[in-house]
Specification:
The chain has 428 residues and is an alpha/beta fold. It is built from 19 helices and 14 strands. Helix 3 crosses helix 19.
Length: 428
């Protein structure tokens, strides 16, 4: 009855979600390979090799999946891996970092009965692996009906989902009973999965694989980045990652102006979360009187320097944090849940963020407790915190050691997740 009611609701709301899908296709973000959203995936029938289907929504989940996919390729060489994402940025991230580890790339089908059946018939996965909270009733039901396994890795239930989920508890209970095992990020996530209907015996706290991914993506050194971006030798550098709204960028610009009054040579490197906003961010910074350079305009001729840089390239932010003296991560100065704190911490950088960190609550709490992450609300607080650190190199060295220890201390989730994949593949 639960599935019938769910599909009836999909039918009744078809005008709304069809309008959304058409907008996505015509608007551009789903234009590329849009037919895959309806189950027409470019995967040939299996030729004797079993398959794993691994799904991530977007960039964040894809980053979490990277160490798992690489390890699965090592321990299960006889399997083919099909990797899906929902967003084009997730697909781009995955293809850039996992090209040598994945056999087939697809976009995730809509959770419509005919779409998921068609995709499953083509892929025929022995196991469906979902990262974080990607639970879809028709997909899970069809995978279990055909006798395949379902695992959730790096499982989490956000604060927002935890508040809303009780109203849809029958649907969550149905879905979670289709899941064979959940590797939860934290004890609170495990408790939330159980409260929504997951059998306690099939939930285990395995940790967050992003701790493992962080140290594997360090990339170029600070000196290399300073040359690449034409930043003045010895000038302090603030790297801002993943801002998402003009309000966030206004707050950061206000703070940077205050920092410049005390330390005029300080440089700013800002990476908006979505590249289509680069021109908007550029105009905002130029209205403050700063001469801005895009990453693709650099390096400058020898002897010339840039002070305010906007990152307009994809996939470089994780490495770019190495040049920072201080890092700021966006997405939490507005009620958007925050963005990835692991990357600057992996470089040993002190990191500032706003108060809305519900998507990264565990790492935010750990960073604050370790004295390497700083939650601020206003531009004045942000500027004061940055200046305190820029004036105290010994404190920054201490934070670098504490941040590296924090990351190392919480590694190992990848191996625990892979062990569960192997265990459930062997279980009949």
């Amino acid at each position: 009855m639960t599935r019938l009611a769910y599909n009836l609701l999909l039918l009744l709301t078809a005008p709304l979600w069809l309008l959304y899908v058409v907008g996505r296709v015509l608007g551009g973000s789903w234009r590329d390979r849009w037919w895959e959203r309806f189950g027409f995936v470019p995967v040939p029938p299996p030729q004797g090799k079993p398959r794993l289907w691994i799904h991530c929504v977007s960039v964040g989940e894809t980053l979490a999946a990277q160490p798992v996919v690489k390890r699965l390729r090592q321990v299960l060489p006889e399997y083919e891996i099909v990797f899906s994402t929902t967003t084009p940025t997730g697909q781009q991230t995955a293809q850039g970092s996992l090209r040598d580890f994945v056999d087939y790339w697809i976009y995730f089908p809509l959770d419509l009965p005919f779409a998921v059946r068609r995709a499953l018939r083509r892929i025929q996965p022995r196991m469906l692996i979902l990262f974080e909270t990607e639970l879809w009733l028709n997909l899970l039901t069809e995978q279990k009906r055909r006798g395949g396994r379902v695992l959730v890795l790096n499982g989490r239930i956000s604060d927002r989902t935890a508040r809303r989920a009780p109203k849809s508890r029958p649907i969550y209970t149905w879905m979670l009973r289709c899941v064979d095992f959940i590797c939860a990020q934290s004890p609170s996530d495990a408790a939330r999965f159980i409260a929504l209907g997951a059998p306690p015996s099939r939930v285990e706290v395995c940790g967050n694989t992003k701790f493992d991914q962080a140290l594997s993506a360090l990339g170029r050194s600070a000196d290399e980045w300073r040359r690449e971006l034409s930043l003045p030798e010895g000038a302090p550098v603030i790297v801002v990652g993943s801002t998402r709204t003009p309000e966030e960028e206004q707050l950061i610009a206000d703070a940077y102006q205050q920092v410049q009054r005390a330390l005029p040579e300080t440089c700013l490197v800002l990476a908006p979360r979505h590249l289509e906003r680069v021109a908007e961010v550029e105009r905002l910074l130029q209205t403050r009187g700063w001469k801005t350079y895009r990453r693709t305009q650099l390096p400058l001729p020898e002897g010339q320097h840039a002070q305010v840089v906007i990152l307009d390239t994809f996939g470089e932010l994780a490495s770019l944090y190495s040049v920072a003296d201080v890092a700021i991560v966006g997405g939490a100065f507005a009620p958007l849940g925050g963005q990835n704190l692991f990357q600057p911490l992996a470089h040993g950088k002190p990191v500032f963020f706003g108060t809305h960190t519900y998507n990264f609550r565990d790492i935010a709490q750990l960073a604050k407790a370790a004295g390497v992450g700083f939650e601020v609300q206003t531009a004045a607080e942000l500027a004061e915190g940055i200046l305190r650190l820029l004036h105290d190199p010994k404190l920054r060295e201490q934070i670098a050691q504490q941040a590296a220890e924090l990351i190392r201390k919480h590694q190992g989730a990848t191996e625990r997740c892979v062990e569960q994949v192997q265990r459930w593949l062997e279980t009949r």
